[in-house]
What we know:
The protein is of the alpha/beta class and 317 residues long. It has ten helices and eleven strands. It has helices at 16-22, 41-48, 87-90, 101-114, 160-166, 173-193, 198-206, 214-246, 278-281, 302-316; strands at residues 7-11, 27-35, 53-60, 81-86, 92-93, 98-99, 119-124, 253-256, 262-263, 269-270, 282-291.
Amino acid sequence: MEENWDIAIILDACRYDFFKRFYRYFFEGYLERIVSKGSCTAEWFKKTFTSVYNDTIYVSGNPFINSYSITIKGCCARKHFRTIVDIWARSWDPILGTVLPQSMNKSLLKTFEHYRGKRIIAHYLQPHAPYISPRYFVAGFSFPDVLKGSLFTLLPSAHPKGESQINDMLGFGKVSRRLETLLNWIEKIIKRAKLGNGIVLEIRRTLKMPPKSPLDATRRLYGVAGLRKAYTINLLIVLEILTYVLENLDGRIVITSDHGEFLGEKNMFRHPCGVEDPILRHVPYFIVKKVKKPKKPVFSLYPLKLKIKLMRRLRRK
């Protein structure tokens, strides 16, 4: 918050190394590698925002940062900012199970016009899973239940390839709950031993249990190489979509992230809290000087194409 900026774009789970490879296709500016204060959103938020910022509006696509007077994992955002715009509550896509970056663009532009002279933080969910491309989407998240603290729960899939592996696995009943308890205990032991949570994910797959998350669902179908391609496309989607809104904004604009993402390194996946690994802690801090808007949209069309594809499938059911 001490840095000099007017609008800060947060790309959830954006790794520095991936951002460095692709930002030049969409923007010109100055890139730094900085160390995040957390390896998950809640940890990053608690350690980054320690005061009251009456000059700042937070446009949030992530339900961890919300206007509710509820503390989740020690994170209570309402007391820190002048206003929190709950885009996650207004624009959660029920089919794709996320907040699309197009929805974030619209809200960011409205907020900029309404609160001129105020600092704005816009928290986009991408490149965080689910992977909203027609090739790699398998499942999204169900609508967040902030009151119960249930924010990122796997949504049954509409994807034809993922359906047999996900939808048919959601009825384990008591046996499933016991297995979940056992695997959660095993995962804690593995975390202490630093063996990688990929072991637990493979146990779940062998036992034909539901994937742990959209990331795990994509990994099951497409492997680690496919998962990394899916993550890359998610990043390209949000970067291209950003070009359509940033050219309409004034002031000093920066793009950064809350944390990175394990994509199979050291047999690790996701972004557990309390991890010091550079993959999770090294994030981009990019000062935008020029927007290179594409002549023909490519990646920004992917979410629309995917949604049309899934809606056609749902209608056939």
